[in-house]
Amino acid sequence: MQEPEEKKIALELLETEQAYVNRLHLLDQIFYTELMKEAKNGKTVPEEVVKMIFSNISSIYQFHAKFFLPELQKRMEDWSCNPRIGDVIQKLAPFLKMYGEYVKNFDKAVELITVWSEKSPPFQELIADIQKRKVCANLTLQHHMLEPVQRIPRYELLLKDYVRKLPPDSPDRDDAEKALEMIFMVAKHSNAAIAEMERLQNLWAVYQRLGLEDDIVDPSNELIKEGPIQKISTRNNSTSEKYLFLFNNMLLYCVPKVIQVGAEFQVHLRINVDGMKVRELNDTQFPHTFLVSGKQRTLELQARSEEEMNAWIK
């Protein structure tokens, strides 16, 4: 007898979960535990650093090893009389929200490993020593740490497949569809956390280029467009190179600094988006020009091409 398709997928879920729990064991019980022990002895790095690297990996490991994997195993053993996994996954889904913290912390964790490996040779040696063990399968700590980040999308794919292969009259159909919806929401939550983190990092990088002026730094701002522009001076019919940062609430008109110590640009002018008007100018002497007029003042600007001008106006 051939195994039904949905059972094959449920078995794949169980097998990948076993491998995943082994990976979590390696991260929590070996890397984290041993690095923490050495940190407590004051030999490698501050304890805080180790905690920051591993975030909430212990909770994630405990949850999968003590709850989810045993429940799945029990289900697969009883498959012949109770062919279903949807209800188990529904119980799992709310706990997956704790991945948000781990995922958000991931880039910072990888950066800390790099920074402290350079600062502290004993720290680097200990990691290298663990990486040489058979259990690491010739892979780096960073590689193993990526696994929890990829786990939720993997559940989503497997479950989608499982629902697709279920016979229409399967007793698991309702539960499995509901479980898939829940996993989908968790994945969205996790992706939104990453997107928000990236937005803030990019915003911070822009603020640094602008010299971190107090009245400009605001985490709720959104950078819409930036780039070089020519400023037209009607007085002496010439242009000079400037740089624009357009946010959702303000346009910053900047001058590139010659000596780049600290900031890259000096903010010469802020025009509030509120009440701002923009229109194209048909100037034969200066093609691709447009006028930005705000409460603060009016600027005549020239782009490098028609596409660029249209992109700014838009």
UniProtKB/TrEMBL annotation:
<dbReference type="GO" id="GO:0046847">
    <property type="term" value="P:filopodium assembly"/>
</dbReference>
<dbReference type="GO" id="GO:0007010">
    <property type="term" value="P:cytoskeleton organization"/>
</dbReference>
<dbReference type="InterPro" id="IPR035899">
    <property type="entry name" value="DBL_dom_sf"/>
</dbReference>
<feature type="domain" description="DH">
    <location>
        <begin position="5"/>
        <end position="193"/>
    </location>
</feature>
<protein>
    <submittedName>
        <fullName>FGD2 protein</fullName>
    </submittedName>
</protein>
<keyword id="KW-0862">Zinc</keyword>
<dbReference type="InterPro" id="IPR011993">
    <property type="entry name" value="PH-like_dom_sf"/>
</dbReference>
<dbReference type="InterPro" id="IPR000219">
    <property type="entry name" value="DH_dom"/>
</dbReference>
<keyword id="KW-0479">Metal-binding</keyword>
<keyword id="KW-0677">Repeat</keyword>
<dbReference type="GO" id="GO:0008270">
    <property type="term" value="F:zinc ion binding"/>
</dbReference>
<keyword id="KW-0963">Cytoplasm</keyword>
<dbReference type="GO" id="GO:0005737">
    <property type="term" value="C:cytoplasm"/>
</dbReference>
<dbReference type="InterPro" id="IPR001849">
    <property type="entry name" value="PH_domain"/>
</dbReference>
<feature type="domain" description="PH">
    <location>
        <begin position="222"/>
        <end position="314"/>
    </location>
</feature>
<keyword id="KW-0863">Zinc-finger</keyword>
<dbReference type="GO" id="GO:0005856">
    <property type="term" value="C:cytoskeleton"/>
</dbReference>
<dbReference type="Pfam" id="PF22697">
    <property type="entry name" value="SOS1_NGEF_PH"/>
</dbReference>
<dbReference type="InterPro" id="IPR055251">
    <property type="entry name" value="SOS1_NGEF_PH"/>
</dbReference>
<dbReference type="InterPro" id="IPR051092">
    <property type="entry name" value="FYVE_RhoGEF_PH"/>
</dbReference>
<keyword id="KW-0206">Cytoskeleton</keyword>
<keyword id="KW-0597">Phosphoprotein</keyword>
<dbReference type="Pfam" id="PF00621">
    <property type="entry name" value="RhoGEF"/>
</dbReference>
<dbReference type="GO" id="GO:0005085">
    <property type="term" value="F:guanyl-nucleotide exchange factor activity"/>
</dbReference>
